[in-house]
């Protein structure tokens, strides 16, 4: 199915606002929405999926039109509270359409963080009293219209409707090549970070390509990954995992290597960590202004920086760096200060096509990490 055709049918259903968090399964859909340029739809990339539901509620209150909320199924947890406590037909009865990329579909090989989430995706919508349909590459325009007709019936009763999108549903098209204008290459920056902190620190890395690049580089530099805990799922939670470790054992230095989209998703963590101000925690944010791992769509905060926010939240020191020399200087200064610090590295949108994935299972990574941490 062409994503443009899908959007045309969405428009016919009366939807004019689209909000959500990008997903690789929905990449062609997301690209089509962004390339629309505001001609047919108002489009918002929100900080997290729950925020998109909040926006959809406001849209309906003001315009009486349902909103489309798109997300990866890993984000269903973020929509449950506003969906159950506000939008449900037994509360305010706010209609909206969910378009959900189905990662970890049973029977389809996927990354470990998607396996359980994929297994329970349909059950979660059933429990939440949200009717749904599944589409794939064989779904016709006629069948899509029938699905949207069922969605309209749900909207009329103050309910929500979900369309679960299988991998490969949308026709692939050439990427538009958007770039952020930053020159520092992330993998080179990560290698420098490892060279500086790996021997005497423990690293917690966020989801996506950051963890994959750290995994490869630590293997090349040190022949192991024992000091690296990769947060393969749970986007936005790496910093609190790192804080939990830092406060549990103040004799060990913990380095959180975060992404800008992840930091934005649960920005309240910055305020909490800043208030606690652990001296043995270094927070590094790789800011490429985009959700690169799921298609490189710009974040809703693209073009802005995080260092000032960190300072306002109580971080003792905050740096924004654009070159390897500036990164090295900031790392050295943070090491001398020995107080809570945040280093924000403005990095380009770039990753090697042959970038590998961890060979060990998530549990094997956790066990090796914990064994090293205890010794």
CATH topology of the largest domain: Rossmann fold
Summed up, the domain count is 2
Helix content: 40-55%
State the helix count: 14
Q: Point out poorly predicted stretches.
A: none
Fraction in beta strands:
15-25%
Please state the overall shape, judged from the principal axes of the Cα atoms: elongated
**In CATH, what is the homologous superfamily of the largest domain?**
Thiamin diphosphate (ThDP)-binding fold, Pyr/PP domains
The largest sheet is: 6 strands, parallel
Q: What's the alpha carbon Rg, rounded to whole Å? A: 21 Å
How far apart lie the N and C ends?
54 Å
Q: Provide mean pLDDT, rounded.
A: 94
Explain this structure to me?
This protein is an alpha/beta fold. The protein folds into 2 domains: 3-165, Rossmann fold; 186-374, Thiamin diphosphate (ThDP)-binding fold, Pyr/PP domains (Rossmann fold, 3-Layer(aba) Sandwich). It is built from 14 helices and 14 strands. The chain has helices at residues 3-12, 27-36, 49-63, 76-87, 112-127, 141-156, 186-197, 209-222, 238-248, 260-265, 268-276, 307-312, 324-337, 362-374, and strands at residues 17-20, 42-45, 67-72, 96-101, 131-135, 161-165, 201-205, 228-230, 253-259, 281-287, 290-291, 297-298, 317-321, 341-346. The strands form 3 sheets. The chain has a 6-stranded parallel sheet with strand order 2-1-3-4-6-5, with helices on both faces. It has a 6-stranded parallel sheet with strand order 8-7-9-10-14-13, sandwiched between helices. Strands 11-12 form a two-stranded antiparallel sheet. Strand 11 (290-291) and strand 12 (297-298) form a beta hairpin. The protein is elongated.
